[in-house]
Amino acid sequence: MRRRGITSSIVAAGLVAGGLLGTSPSMAQGGSSFGLTLVGTGVGTVQVRSINLATGQSAFVQQIGLDGVGFTLGSFTSASFADRAYFVSSNNSLYRLAYQDGGPLGGGTFAVSNIAITGAGLPPQVINVAGDGTLYGLRTNSGGGPGNLTVDFIRLNPDTGVATALSSPAFGGSGYNINSYALNRQNSRAYVVSGSNRIFTLDLADGATLASPQLDVTLATMGTLPDGSLVGFTSSSSGTVEFRSINPDTGATTLLGSAALSGFLATSFVTDPFNSRAYVLSSDNRLLTWDATTGQVINSPTISGGAFQSLRLLPTPGAAATLLLGGALTLRRRRD
pLDDT digits over 295-315, tens only? Predict the structure, then answer.
């Protein structure tokens, strides 16, 4: 799937052959971020690459073999306070990547292990990590299907692989936008936009829906800033992309800034856990850095090293780069 214009990617279950994405929690004392690219190099194989946020340059770190053909779209996340990252394979295994020798920017690599995810349902489509290291995400219930989608909000134990369904949010047959899933570690809340463009606030304790107002614009992406506030991207009728803040209690959004772009890759949108910055890949292969305070684009280098499909940050002490996942991959939708 090559990048097109703005896409909301509203699905119940999506698999990417060699592609994944996710967000990362705050860890570093100094407040900095770096990242990696995971580039599909063949069925069941990915290449890990680092990427520099300022220059767009990438470098090889290591290769990882999989037990399936690829990953569930949206399943990459990291628990940087525990020096560990996670993703879910298409074979429903939780992959755990632990830093070795200071991590990629320190000249080290990752120790990779995987464990089967147990519990009913398909592999999680999206996961994110809470402050205590527990994973929370969304998966399609195996009884769902196009036009009749049932989605479970789950808690996933990263040590045992046990998945527990907390609730089934009332998204309806339209499902949810996989690029809109965000987690606020300050107030133990998760957020996601349904296919009918309602923003759901979910309690991590029991999965209860605390609010679900209609949004005043159609969001393609959503993420959480360091202060817990929500921001996202959408398009306008004038051919520009708009960067907006979001009130999850009312559904009201506020325009922060806009840019004339032919489009952007919705799966690449990511917010910085330490700074008021957001990043997105444009359709012409540039990495745009947005200042969430002013709403302005402050950097836009061209990305090297491949046709990436997603972008995520991985916080760690002492350096700044980005976490990306890409390659010329194919998005497949599961039909039950």
Answer: 999 999 988 766 666 676 765
Give strand ranges (E) for 43-175.
45-51, 58-65, 71-72, 77-79, 84-88, 93-99, 110-116, 126-129, 135-140, 151-156, 163-167
Residues 6+ positions from 245 with CB-CB distance below 8 Å: 229, 230, 231, 253, 254, 256, 292
Strand ranges, E, within 117-268: 126-129, 135-140, 151-156, 163-167, 176-177, 182-184, 189-193, 199-203, 209-211, 223-224, 230-235, 240-246, 253-260
| Rg over CA atoms, the chain | 18
pLDDT greater at residue 287 or residue 273? 287
Contact 303, 310 (CB under 8 A): no
| Cα–Cα distance, 140 to 168 (Å, whole number) | 10
45-51 β-sheet, strand order: 58-65, 45-51, 36-42, 323-326, 308-312
Residue-wise pLDDT tens digits, 286-297:
889 999 989 999
Output the CA angle 274-266-86, nearest 5 degrees: 55
Residue for token pair 């009913």: 120
Which residues contact residue 171 at a Cβ distance below 8 angstroms, ignoring those fewer than 6 apart? Answer: 149, 151, 194, 195, 196, 200
Report how far residue 268's alpha carbon sits from residue 217's, in angstroms, rounded to the nearest whole number: 20
Beta bridge partners of 332: 15
Distance CA 75, CA 70 (A): 11
Both tokens of 79, joined, read 């628990």
Rounded Cα distance between 245 and 119, Å, is: 36
Q: How far apart are CA 32 and CA 39, in angstroms?
A: 24
3 state DSSP class of 241: strand
User: Tokens 């393609």 sit at which residue?
Assistant: 220
Tens of pLDDT, residues 7-58: 333 333 334 433 333 333 333 333 445 555 556 666 788 777 777 788 888 7
Q: Which of 241, 193, 238 is nearest to 216 (CA)?
A: 193
